Amino acid sequence: MNFQNHFKKILIYVIYKLPIYLIPVLGFGQDMDNENDLKQIIGYPLNGIELRLDGIVDEEFWTTIPGNGNFLMQEPKEGAKPTEQTEIRIAFDSQNIYIAVVCYDSSPSDIKTFQKKRDASLETDDRFRWIFDTFMDKRSAYFFEINPLGLRGDGLISSGQGQTLNKDWDGIWNAWTYIGDFGWSAEIKIPFRSINFDPKSDVWGINFQRTIRRKNEEQLWTGHRRNQGLLRPQNAGILTGLVGHSQGLGLEFIPYGITQSSKIYDEEKAEYSSASSMDLGFDLNYNITSQLKASITYNTDFAQTEVDNRQINLTRFPLRFPEKRDFFLEGSSIWEFAPSSNVDPYFSRRIGLVNGIPIPIKYGGRLIGNIGKSNIALLHVRTGREGELNPENFSVARYRRNFWKESSIGLIYTYRSTEDDILLGNPIQDRKTWGTDLNLSTSEFLGDNTLQFSAFFVAHSAALPSNDSTSISDRSVRGFRFNFPNQPWSAWVSYREFGDEYDPAIGFNQRNGFKRLQPAINYAPLFEKSQFIREIEWGVYYEYLTSLENKLLTENLRFNLGTIRFESGDNLGVEVSRGFEFLNEDFDILGDSTVIVAPGKYVNWGYELQASSASFRKVSGSIGYEAGGFWTGNIRRLVMGLTIRPALGINLSSGYTHAQVSAENSGFSTNLFQVDLGLDFTPDISLSSNIQFDDISDILGTNTRFRWIITPGTDIFFVYNHNWLNNPTLNRRLFTTQQGAAMKAVYTYRF
């Protein structure tokens, strides 16, 4: 027996047997936390006192409350005393919670402030961040952040097989900031109506983080270890004293009005067709309890949603683009299914979008929240007719039950029906998908390490009523995963099987008919005594993928030879890889029959170099170069990015991706250009323009977006899109194929 086969047998034995022996003894169910041992901060009632919210923490009420600080450094020296001090105070009345923070700084002129636009990345700026685990379940939390200019960012945290931060969620809240000779300070007001919570509890999970960007210094109020951090609700402290807080009637009415016009070139008629319209719609939200919210949407429109970043796909498999529409983002932590396993029985972009083209949503309903330890999410959406596409009904149900301290078990069900649908001459029947997932997790393994185990199974009905040749095994997926997401050591091993005919009607899937084993291990120590290097990461990643009949299809081995993070914030990395692919049919790389890869076995080696400069500089950039074998030839890929911030509120970013491919008796090159211009006048008024061009589609596209947040929850959007075709061979240089403009106004009434 050769070494490779012996190694594979050992791995498979460990994968199958380890759960049986370890689950009872790893402490997944232990509950050793004593609430009294957690770091605490007290919320003080205002008792009718009116605060002057201007960012200056000088009111008598604030000065009588003791400041709560005592942060510890996470980086560059884990557990060290911060170089600058921070003080936090919390107050509340029946409608709102207030946070006052003072970030002392011995050199205020060196505070980094570039960003103003809501939800912009603060990797460039000094910042203050915090989370609310309002249910004390240590699984999910609300995330908020600000910078010294009053930028507001927020999101939803879900903690499963790793931590997920969804920053596309927008809450209604406000912040006021001030920069002075002491450093900078802020006053923050968050309505209780903007978040869900357990009204029977006067205790929330809470944590804070401060970043001093010029020093690349990260401070944590609690959970300062590198394998902990702000995005882990398990390591939060507690906020006590909350009483008498209310969501009012819990009723929210959000009407919108929109006017839009468009012009599209009709290839068959060789002329333009124009259209214009005015429309109204609304969302209606009602908190049945402070933990359970029901929502109705009518005549929903997402004209204000930003466009997807364009990508050139040189693989055999479809690309996955993120969801950006507000209606589908609420409750994202509950919808997640078997996180990190890349199985998506529910993918919301299958609703109201076909190949990126919007399909009208006539109405929808949603119920999301918690009932005790149970998480519930129900969704129903009806789409309208669009061209040859008939109306459809989409229904999704998700139930997850929390048990022990950090573990859960869940179910999911989806249903899709199409009105009188005939697709490619075949009638499509109602399609149903069902699945279950188990997540076992502890953050107390061998002390304060995290260890996780997950397993899942998903199956669906046949799409065609005449289909009697496939079994549940053909139309299902199953697998499990062990995860050790810690620092400096991290590792995982996963196994999964995908049936030949797996295609969930409201899900996303890249590849069918395989078994995959995937272990990986990484080591990333801090160099605390070095004045030059902050961290170096090394790692090995292995993928072994076979057909369901155990024929080897794909094998990948990647070595991270060192990713260096310097004290300056700059990065440098080198990776070497070996790949094997068995191709059982022709692969049309560009989809136009110009470059065809014949069936066969292909082994290729490659390497990748990456470097980037610290993003807090006024001029920063990144570069990546990849070279190696590519099917029958070679590939060289260059990815470059440049960001310039000439003045406060002005951000100009550009990107360029070039690929040069040689193949047997042929070859090609691709180019993708992207430019983003942001003009942020205030934290509430911004203008952005996205320009993209690639020489595969030959489409030059622009998306210009103006947003004015009059008050939180009341917005005006203006969006203009323009696409040109640039194809000299057809004598079409910058030929307009589509253009459109929309103006939308949204108002929020709360009762």
TrEMBL record:
InterPro entries attached here? DUF5916 (IPR045670)
> Which parts of the sequence belong to the DUF5916 domain?
251-352
Q: By its UniProt entry, which Pfam families does this protein fall under?
A: DUF5916 (PF19313)
Q: Which domain of life is it from?
A: Bacteria
Q: CDD domains annotated for this entry?
A: CBM9_like_2
Gene3D superfamilies the UniProt entry points to:
2.60.40.1190
Name of this chain's protein: DUF5916 domain-containing protein
Q: Which organism is it from?
A: Arenibacter algicola
